[in-house]
Amino acid sequence: MRMSGRCQKLPVRRRGLAPVVLALALLTAACGGNSPTSSSSSGSESGAGASAASAGERGAVAEKRLATNTLVPLEGEAPAPQLPVTVDSSDGRRVTVKDTSRILPLNGGVAEIVFTLGLGDRVVGRDITATFEEAKKLPQVTRAHDVSAESVLSLKPTVVLADTDTGPKEAIDQIREAGVPVVVLDPATELADVSTRTTRIAEALGVPSAGKALNARIDRELAAARAAVPRGSEPKVAFLYMRGSAAVYLMGGRGSGADSLLAAAGAVDAGVEAGLDKPFTPLTSEALVSARPDVILMMDKGLESVGGVDGLVGIPGIRETPAGMNRRVVTLEDGVLLSFGPRTPLVIDILVDRIHRG
After folding, report:
1. For a tag site, which of 34, 99, 177, 265 has the least CB within 10 Å?
2. Please, what sign has the CA dihedral across residues 112, 114, 120, 124?
3. What DSSP string runs through 170-213?
4. Residue 17: its pLDDT value, please?
5. Does the CA dihedral 73-107-183-343 come out positive or negative?
6. What does the alpha-carbon distance between residue 151 and residue 154 come to, in Å, rounded to a whole number?
7. Tell me: the pLDDT tens digits for 145-200?
8. Model confidence over 230-244: pLDDT tens digits?
9. How does pLDDT run across 285-320, given as a tens digit for each residue?
């Protein structure tokens, strides 16, 4: 199931003022485009240097960074692709890429990686899930989530990046038959997939060194985010995917993607603990009450679709959980929450802050 949508942020509880020096440092980082999880000109990531900051401080800066809806490319000059390259495609083919002057990513997370590698000026189009600012003005080549081969070919791409969820298959076949190299990637569904996907994209575009640099940056940022997890706190969190207008009510389990994020943020996935061995299972009040989550994690569009927190607690079973009784609901934009890309460390920072609050 492909998840998409945009978020509306819930109010953030005010906290006491940090020491002046730290506050100034955080403000400077946010205004300069460098957050606790972005690169610094000294060559060491500011995320690594800010590991001692509290979860609240890191979460606040991460929220500001995400609110800009922009990306932080690798420092320095854009990498020069070394071509041609021949790479493995996840549909069992070997694909040779000879030209990366017109790149077309058919997945929002893939597009984020391409831009962050420093190749954004070569991207000629986007799919519906590429919602960050740098991509918004690009022509959209999908209708709903289906790729339009005609729209893709009209942009004359020299390489297309897709994943195994991209379809319909007939459209991908049509693009290939027109002579355009199409590199298919496995979907990213957990933190471990971030480095794998980054490496494969960088190799397909002829910039493997940039891929290694980006992976090193993300690793440092994730380590700093994890270092802020409060000791002794292990809240139980249920990830709910809802689309009220379509009567879709699902609970995340093993493989949902959220399970990996919650583990990194120091939480217990309520669905996994309840024995849900599929990514998503139809929600029942009995299962929810039995899972007893302390916090509910959702995508913003999902919460909006059921009428906000007031509407959510009216769904059978929600009010009977500790999360429902205490109205402990955390939301993030779905285009970011499960993107598993360069902005994922920001997601971990925010989750660490929000889900561990008393």
Report:
1. 177
2. negative
3. HHHHHHHHTT--EEEEPPP-STHHHHHHHHHHHHHTT-HHHHHH
4. 33
5. positive
6. 5
7. 899 999 999 999 999 999 999 999 999 999 999 999 999 999 999 999 999 999 99
8. 999 999 999 999 999
9. 999 999 999 999 999 999 999 999 999 999 999 999
Q: Which residue has the tokens 């060559």?
A: 43
**Closest Cα to residue 274, out of 243, 301, 240, 303?**
240
**Quick check: helix, strand or coil at residue 162?**
strand
Count other Cβ atoms within 10 Å, centred on residue 318: 25
Cross-strand partners of 126: 140
Query: Does 11 have pLDDT greater than 80?
Result: no
Please report, as a single letter, which amino acid is at residue 249.
Answer: Y
DSSP string, 284-316: -HHHHHHH--SEEEEEHHHHHHTTHHHHHHTST
Closest CA to 58 of 68, 50, 66: 50
Distance CA 87, CA 76 (A): 26
HSE value, Cβ hemisphere, 13 Å, CA-based, for 282: 3
